[in-house]
């Protein structure tokens, strides 16, 4: 059916937000045929019941078998219509024109896929709100058709330009079914949308970013999750794009430990001096203290015996010192920027913000070290042992 749309939503314990998502889809001002497919991987709440009540076709998959790329590829075979929307369970259409606008995007433009802008949920934390708003600012306020002239031109692009060029977001995106059948999502564990976009753009296809179409979407994630996600993002972007944002391959495991220790001391001293609640925490109880505990046992013993003095006296090269100072400066700058922008007055909110900023900067640092060495084929067994546990859980 040429005029219809199939919406595919992978779910797992979607909760209240998924209920709002279904309600917003039901209220759409769209006259064409609509098929709703929910691919559920082991929900134990009312997600499946809500989907059935909404008229969805529910396909259940074993949680152990769920895969961001393969599961989506398998779901395409269930779609009856030539336009397919992939979205996530916590994305809520922001108006009743959302579905019609997505359909028109494919009708008006010669593109393989189109994706939308996002706005934060009403309960988004200041950091979550800042993340979404920063992405929107980087992408711009006008529609953009993304294309690649040649493999050679793409290879010469800077990291940031390449990243923007192959941007595509399955939070909410509409695809032509024939393109999904001809070129399925590549077998990657993360960023399957970006990997698909890169492959199709290099084949001469085009992709549309349509910021006038919006969905509500954001995550209030704990610092530990943010740290892992930054590592995984750096790792998979490097594998997909064949490049890194910052080449940190000069950092060895001992440098990474020393850098982490110094930044940990910087954050703990700041936290203790600025916040009354900061004195309730031991340095080892912070995220960075937890990370330091994952380094080889010898380093942990030295850390225990000598405390912060040991870490400050660890010899550092000029490059490591410069990187450490840069990270501390960026933590300080971003913390104050977000605090002032969103008028965060309460101490608890400021401490959470600090922890989130630290987690993101340090996760990105760890991720870029790993990704840089990955591309150079220079990952030591010690670095592999340290990083491998962080490459899961996102």
Kindly describe this structure.
- By secondary structure, the protein is an alpha/beta fold.
- The protein has two domains: 5-220, Spore Coat Polysaccharide Biosynthesis Protein SpsA, Chain A (Alpha-Beta Complex); 241-391, no CATH class.
- Helix content is 52%, strand content 13%.
- It has 16 helices and nine strands.
- Strands 1, 2, 3, 4, 5, 6, 7, 8 and 9 form a nine-stranded mixed beta sheet that branches.
- Helix 1 (15-26) links the parallel strand 1 (5-11) and strand 2 (34-40).
- It is globular.
- The two termini are 36 Å apart.
Radius of gyration: 23 Å
Give the N-terminus to C-terminus distance in angstroms.
Answer: 36 Å
**Structure class:** alpha/beta
Percent of residues in beta strands: 5-15%
Give the averaged pLDDT, no decimals: 91
Per DSSP, the total helix count is 16
- Write down the CATH topology of the largest domain: Spore Coat Polysaccharide Biosynthesis Protein SpsA, Chain A
CATH architecture of the largest domain: Alpha-Beta Complex
Question: Please, how many domains?
Answer: 2
Q: What is the approximate shape? A: globular
């Amino acid at each position: 059916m040429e005029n219809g749309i199939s919406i595919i939503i992978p779910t797992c314990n979607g909760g209240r937000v998924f209920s709002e998502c279904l309600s917003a889809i039901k209220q759409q001002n769209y006259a064409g045929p609509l098929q709703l497919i929910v691919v559920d991987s082991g929900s134990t709440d009312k997600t499946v019941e809500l989907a059935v009540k909404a008229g969805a076709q529910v396909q259940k998959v074993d949680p152990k078998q769920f895969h961001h790329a393969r599961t989506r590829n398998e779901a395409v075979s269930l779609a009856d219509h030539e336009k397919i929307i992939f979205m996530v369970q916590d994305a809520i259409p922001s108006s009743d024109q959302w579905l019609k606008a997505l359909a028109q995007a494919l009708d008006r433009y010669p593109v393989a896929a189109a994706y939308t802008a996002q706005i934060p949920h009403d309960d988004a934390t200041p950091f979550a709100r800042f993340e979404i708003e920063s992405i929107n600012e980087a992408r711009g306020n006008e529609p953009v058709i993304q294309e690649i002239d040649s493999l050679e031109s793409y290879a010469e692009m800077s990291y940031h330009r390449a990243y923007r060029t192959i941007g595509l977001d399955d939070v909410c995106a509409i695809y032509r079914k024939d393109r999904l059948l001809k070129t399925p999502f590549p077998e990657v564990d993360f960023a399957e949308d970006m990997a698909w976009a890169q492959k199709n753009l290099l084949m001469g296809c085009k992709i549309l970013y349509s910021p006038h179409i919006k969905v509500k979407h954001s995550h209030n994630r704990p610092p530990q999750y943010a740290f892992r996600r930054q590592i995984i993002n750096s790792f998979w972007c490097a594998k997909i794009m064949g490049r890194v944002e910052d080449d940190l391959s000069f950092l060895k495991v001992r440098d990474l430990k020393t850098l982490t220790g110094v930044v940990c001391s910087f954050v703990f001293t700041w936290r203790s001096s600025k916040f009354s609640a900061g004195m309730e925490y031991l340095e080892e109880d912070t995220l960075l203290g937890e990370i330091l505990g994952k380094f080889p046992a010898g380093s942990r013993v030295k850390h225990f015996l000598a405390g912060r003095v040991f870490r400050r006296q660890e010899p550092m090269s000029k490059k490591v010192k410069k990187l450490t100072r840069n990270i501390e400066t960026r933590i300080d700058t971003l913390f104050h920027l977000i605090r002032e922008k969103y008028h965060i007055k309460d101490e608890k909110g400021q401490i959470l913000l600090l922890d989130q900023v630290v987690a993101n900067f340090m996760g990105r640092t760890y991720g870029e070290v790993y990704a840089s060495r990955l591309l150079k084929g220079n990952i030591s067994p010690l670095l592999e042992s340290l990083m491998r546990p962080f490459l899961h859980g996102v």
